[in-house]
Amino acid sequence: MNQIYPCLWFDGQAKEAAQFYCSIFENSKITADNQMVVTFELNGKKFMGLNGGQEFKFNEAVSFVVECETQEEIDNLWNSLISDGGSEGNCGWLKDKFGVSWQIVPTVLPALLSNPDKAQNVIQAYMKMKKFDIQALENA
Question: Cα(36)–Cα(14) distance, rounded to whole angstroms?
């Protein structure tokens, strides 16, 4: 069976990026490393980092979604991923120091948005947020 996994294009920072991500996510490790590519697993999912040069940059057209059960998980991942040069976006989006986009999302969000009595209030609440606040969403 064919395995499908993302390849991330870095400007000579593939190993540094893999080490950074592996330090943040549990069940993660670098599985192979040479001058051109680094393969690694994040929470058991395979990734490849390519030292491709300056030609291409990351943008929001591709992002990685991380579902979180608790506010503590959201806070820890958010703070780790924006550390050392990352930046906050709106509605749970951020960019890490390498320019990779992430969405840090509470698992409760789909249920809140499915409730016709709460959905509009939840949307209005999260449109004002950078990092998601589960309690504020539930109270909306």
Answer: 8
**Cβ atoms within 10 Å of 94's Cβ, excluding its own:** 22
Per-chain mean pLDDT for the chain? 97
User: What domains lie within the chain, and their CATH numbers?
Assistant: 1-57 (3.10.180.10), 58-140 (3.10.180.10)
Q: Is the dihedral of CA 62, 98, 41, 103 positive or negative?
A: negative
Q: Under a CB-based contact definition with an 8 Å cutoff, are residues 84 and 71 in contact?
A: no
Note the pLDDT tens digit of each residue in 37-94.
Answer: 999 999 999 999 999 999 999 999 999 999 999 999 999 999 999 999 999 999 999 9
Question: Residue 90 in 3-state DSSP?
Answer: coil
What is the 8-class DSSP label of residue 91? T
pLDDT of the residue at 1: 85
SS3 for 38? strand
What is the pTM assigned to this prediction? Answer: 0.94
